[in-house]
Amino acid sequence: MHYILRKESAITGEKNYEVLASYDFPLFCGCTNEKEEEDIIARCEFGIFESGSIELLKLIPLDLLYQNGHGAGAVGALWQKHHEEFANFLMSFKPKSVLEIGGGHGKLAKECLKLDEGLEYTIIEPNSSTKDGRINYIDGFFEKKALEGKKFDLIAHSHTFEHIYEPNKFLNECAQMLLDEGGGG
User: Fold this and answer.
1) Cα distance between residue 168 and residue 150, in whole Å
2) Which of 10, 13, 134, 179 could form a disulfide with 151 if both were Cys (CB 3.0 to 4.6 A apart)?
3) What is the DSSP letter of 110?
């Protein structure tokens, strides 16, 4: 496997680190119908930088990591409540357009659309499996160029930030895609 090697902290930019832990790990650990001997084993290596930031040093190429999507879409009462409350929070800013990064199954989008049926909602997701006709889908990873100069009142991501390999670049690109500094209404 060809890893993406992190040579400096994604957060601070510092280059000095010490390997904290290194072990082999099945890439698709979870419920699977695949035979154990067919698992892809990845070398999981964490480093600690002088600032104390702990980061994964060997990154799996995203096209391999997310080839089968992420998240089943089935949620229990606790996660349903999470989506409802997060939607209420987002919609309190009265946005007219929302971009959700890593929207997966579309649960948050559907909760937001219950609160405002006229909302323009876009999800960017590498492998969206269930599609709702009220939502604009962009199949791919978040990149400013993938959105062709579009701007949004609000950009949301839930349980996505830990999957971002270049967090500073990600946040800068999000900021550039907000209309009038975001917030809607």
Assistant:
1) 20
2) 179
3) H
77-180 under CATH 3.40.50.150, yes or no: yes
Q: Which two tokens stand for residue 69?
A: 């999507």
In angstroms, the CA 165 to CA 68 distance is 19
Cα separation, 141 vs 103, whole angstroms: 11
In contact, 156 and 99? CB cutoff 8 Å: yes
Q: What are phi and psi of 46, to 5 degrees?
A: -105, 140
How does pLDDT run across 11-34, given as a tens digit for each residue? 899 999 999 999 998 876 665 667
**Distant-in-sequence, close-in-space partners of 10: CB < 8 Å, separation ≥ 6:** 55, 165, 166, 167, 168
**b/e for 93-114, b at 16 or more Cβ within 10 A?**
eebebbbbbbbbbbbbbebbbe
Q: What is the pLDDT of residues 118-165, one digit of tens each?
A: 999 999 988 777 788 999 998 888 877 778 788 999 999 987 887 888
